[in-house]
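Before we proceed, please read the two lines closing this message. Let me know whether the C-alpha cells fit the sequence:

…
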Amino acid sequence: MAIKLFVTDLDGTLLPTQATVSEGNIRAVQEAVAAGVTVTIATGRMYRAALPVAQALGVNVPIITYNGALIKTVDGKVIYRSCLEPSLVVEILDFCESKGWYVQSYSRDALRYPEHTELSDQYEKSQLVTGEAVGWDGMREITEETPKLLCIAPRPEDAEERVKALSEHFAGRLEVFRSSPRYIELVRIGVSKAAAVTLLAERMGITKDEVMAIGDGNNDIPMLQAAGKSVAMGNAADGVKAICTCVTDRPEEDGLAHAMKALGLID
C-alpha cells in the first residue's frame, strides 16, 4: 500500500545536533510532496522553534509540536490543540518551586522561566529562541494556552528521580516522560506524538498502513509503532532499531533522504 503520510522526528533525525536542514533532505521532502505524500514534522519543540525548520523545507507541511499538543501548519492554520488546565499549571509550578527545580512554560508559544540560569541559556542556544525571566509569581500569572511545561534537570540521574516524583504526585492528571536524558516533558493526559499522528491520519482519511514514521529516540517508539512502516536512524537507540521496519543512515549522512529512496517514496 502506498505511503500517504510521512512523519519525521526533528532533532537527531531530520536534523543533526544544532544544524540546519541539508540540501539532500530538502530535495527528498519536496520530491515526496510533489508525488502526493504529506510530510509532517513531529517534535517536542515549541512551534516557533520548529517553524524555521519547516520553512526551510519549502512546503506548507503540518507541524506536530510540543510532543503532540499542537498541530499547526507553516502558514498558521491550527489543526489541533490540547493545553494544560491553568489551575494544573499553577499546581505544577508550586510543586517545582517547592523542590527548587528549574521549569519553563510555553503559554501562547512564548518561552518563560522564573530566572535566567545556565539551564535556560543552554536551552535557548539549542533551540535558537529567546525566553523571558518573569519570576515564580509571573509564571503563575501566565497560564492560558499552555501546551506543556518542561522541567530540565542538571544531570540525567536527577531527571530520573524527578520523573518518579512528578508521576506519583500528579498520577492520573499529567503525562510525565523524558524526551532526552535531562528533559522532563509535562503534558495533558493523552497527549503524545503517537496520538497526534493517529489523529492527523484520521482527519486526512489515511489508514495506519499508509503512514510511515522515522525517528531516533526511545521517546519516538510509540510514534513509530503508530505507523504502518517505521524507520530507525543509524544513530538510534537499540530499542528503537529493534521495533522498526528498517534502519537507515545517520542524520549527518542524510539518512531521511536515503530512507525515502530505499522505501520507494522518491526516485
User: Anything to note?
Assistant: The first strand starts at residue 5 and ends at 9.
